[in-house]
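During the second half of the funding period, the structural biology subgroup turned its attention to how the target accommodates small molecules. The most pressing case was guanosine-5'-triphosphate, which had performed well in the primary screen but for which no bound structure existed. We therefore specified the complex as follows and requested a full 3D prediction, including the ligand pose.
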Amino acid sequence: MLENLSTKLQKTLRDLRGEGRISERHIEASMREIRMALLESDVHFTVVKDFVSRVKEKALGQEVLGDLMPGQQVIKVVRDELTNLLGKETIDLKMSKVPPSVILLVGLQGSGKTTSTGKLAMWLRNQKHQPVLVSTDVYRPAAIEQLSIVAGEIDIPVYREDGRDPVQLATQALQHARDMGFDVLLVDTAGRLHIDMELMEELERITSAVNPTETLLVADAMTGQDAVNSAREFNQRLDLSGVILTKMDGDTRGGAALSIKAVSGRPIKFIGVGEKYDALEVFHPERMANRILGMGDVLSLIEKAEQVVDKEQAEQVLRKIQKNEFTLEDFRQQILQLRQLGPLEEIFKMLPQAGPLKGLDKVQVDEKQLGHLEAIINSMTLEERAHYKKINSSRRKRIARGSGRPVSEVNRLLKQYVQTKKMMKKASKGFLGKGLRKLNFPI
Ligand SMILES: Nc1nc2c(ncn2[C@@H]2O[C@H](COP(=O)(O)OP(=O)(O)OP(=O)(O)O)[C@@H](O)[C@H]2O)c(=O)[nH]1
Ligand SMILES: [Mg+2]
């Protein structure tokens, strides 16, 4: 996500970090690099111009603050302004006081409306809402069927009538939601290649008929400036309440994320980061700014961990580590939880790339390897998992056969386990243990 921009900005800021005193010439040079990096990432040029002049003004006008070094002060200015550009603060999804709330998803063809409808429904269900879906796309054959398939995959109810008028469909779906006690209605609409009068009029009629609580523009980050322009034009007709920026996982230049708020005045509320239905993140401007500048996104990481990590189990593991009772079975559980967090490369990228963690974002993790570790432990008996010293050479051979891995890998795993056990015991006593325990992290 925004990798190119991130690399370039981090390089520029690294040069500033060590500087005790920053001269005007220094700032000029850094701002030139930042300007280039932003333009290359397809950020709108007027946005770039404003951004750079604001940073320059603040950086040059600053008194030395507290114990911040001047170089770091400039970095803080860049961070704060980047946060502002991305939208300042997180804007929550509005819900109607009297349910059902209606969320209308609009956008150009292929921007990800139908997929995002599914993702948002799943997100809402996790927040204890009871959503129901409807598609008003009566034009594209199979569009209504597509939404039904999505709904089936995530087990969310859908209101369906084929071939009716879009406004009528939306109105009936709202009545259905009321009658059946659903508290959110998600309306997936038809897309067009370009913004045209007919589409806008239809969306306006749907809006008057169902009075949406939220009108979200779904925009494709990969289309860069087009996504930004669509936000401006849709907003002129529809009074958008926010944007879902999709395909942020792609190898995009990413300028849309930085320009959309400034150009359209509407905040990004969610970002789509993959094709699966759980690949939707609430958009937090400050966290995103930190991520771009390599300062880590530890909060998002903790939230992610909290979804998969069982607190009690984590505490139990910690107690075991301290008593030196951490078994191979616990090791297996840890690997399992780690894999549930998602691709490890993505996880590492959320950590601050500084100090001992520096360079972690470049580490390549072979997910297959983790799978092999699991397979090897799976082939051990419970007795063996609890007492690794009992695993002699004939048992190692049997385990290798059982898991379909060579004996050398079994040996390596046992060595890794013993090392991990030692390291964990050390860490659990020290600063790391205290810190991670506070976060309920499964070490
Ligand atoms: N990688 C990635 N792909 C996405 C994301 N969101 C949507 N897609 C893909 O984009 C394509 C189009 O998505 P749809 O949800 O069908 O788009 P739409 O806006 O409903 O399209 P129309 O109904 O034809 O206007 C599909 O292949 C999706 O899998 C995302 O966040 N990341
Ligand atoms: Mg669609």
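Two results from this model are relevant to the next phase. The pocket of magnesium ion (ligand 2) is lined by residues 113-114, 137, 143, 188, 191 (CB under 6 Å). The beta strands are 101-106, 131-135, 158-159, 184-188, 214-220, 242-246, 268-272, 280-282.
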